[in-house]
Write a structure and sequence with these properties.
By secondary structure, the protein is mainly alpha-helical. It contains 15 helices and seven strands. Helix 13 crosses helix 14.
Length: 383
Amino acid sequence: MKRSGGGWSYTIVWPDGRVHEEADSFLRLREGVGTQRTYAYSLVDHLRWRLREGLTTEAVSLPDLYRYMGAVGAKVPMPWGQPWRTPPKQPYGAAALQVAAACLKGFYLHHCASAGVNDNLRAGLETRRLPTQVDRDRALLGHAIKSMPANPLAPKRGSRPRHPKMLPDGARPGLLQVVNTARDEMVVTWLSDTSLRIGGLTGLHLVDLHLREDAPCGDCKSPHLHVCHRWGNPNRAAAKIKPDWAIVDGIVTKGEIYRASPAMVSSYFKYMTTEYAKHAAGHGMLLIQLAGPNRGEPWTADAARGMLRRAGRRASLAGRVTPKAFRHQFTNNILDVTGGDPFIAKAAGNWASAKMVDEVYGHPDLHSPEFQSALRTVWGEDE
């Protein structure tokens, strides 16, 4: 549903169009944030399964929720009945299972508490665990923490995060050779030289760009841009992170700040003086559609993903080119050139935690002289 302020809200309805009251009251708690859409898609799948099983909020039990998690792909030590996500649907991956577990816990705790029903399920979901060292490090008074909330539905995570997928070799030059427009060239350049997410890039407005030295915002002396979370963008693009930002005397301040490389500035002026000047409407957003009946209107994140996917095929790159891979590659490259310093990578990539950067991206160069020398020493070949 499109709201009067320009944003979008999500709810769940019955086949006859009636609003599903239980789902709607839960989703309203997340009005104006991206979690509402994510939870809506996750919750509607569960409610369909629950309807098939003949269960209600008052009657569902914790083993029933375990059965559902098993049916959508989690590894649970119990049978989960009839298949649910049958082909062409795929079982949920690790990230989707975490989202489903968080959504179900929030949904049932909300209704059990508000309606005063199903105390057994409420008690089962309100479990706690001992705090880890990471929990203590993140808390203001971490030494005083005795327990942390736990989600019994969440699948167990591995001891170490999986190293993320990087771009195929030669991705940047290969893509730049096959893209068809200055806009697409700018997108490849900006994703390559920053850790921008695609929602943040497609949600940029022209006022967010301070592509010169000593911009009047005072937040950064070098050329940079401000990624600001806006709920009402006409292309429905929104930044994932929501730090405070403001417009002071017509100048954008704060938000997420990304430094701009000379190549980014050059590609921006090429795009602005050609395609943008020719086709842009008066909406003030950076990326626009260049063809079709909506030419000049804001370009969507899905359209940007499609452009990268098609360009990757034209360039004969191995694997699928995704915006997220640029973010991973940028962080990996920063670590390589700084000798594995996670604090520089955290600051350059706007990551939340240097420890997470080190755990996920930190790895030795298997072809470095130091690595080869260490192996030869252990093997006794240097003697």
